[in-house]
Amino acid sequence: MPSATTLAAQARGYAKAARTLEDENNLKNARELYLKAAKLYNDASKISTDKTDTNTQRDLAEHLLNKAQSLKRTSVHQSGSGVSSRDGGGGSETDESSLSKDDLILKEIPNIGFDDIGGLESVKEEIKKAIIYPFTHKDLYKMYGQKAGEGILLYGPPGCGKTMMAKAAAKECGADFISVKTSSIVSKWVGASEKNVKQVFETARQSEKSIVFFDEIDSIAGRRSESEDYAKRVVNELLAQMDGVDTADDELLILAATNEPWAIDPALRRPGRFSKLVYIPEPDLDARAAIFKINMKGRPIADDVNVNRLAEITESYSGADISAICKEAADIPLGEALRGGEARKIEERDFVKVLKGRKPSILSWYVEARKEVKKSGEEAVFDGIVKSRVD
Ligand SMILES: Nc1ncnc2c1ncn2[C@@H]1O[C@H](COP(=O)(O)OP(=O)(O)O)[C@@H](O)[C@H]1O
Ligand SMILES: [Mg+2]
Question: Going by DSSP bridges, is the β-strand pair 210-214/276-279 parallel, antiparallel, or unpaired?
Answer without folding.
Answer: unpaired
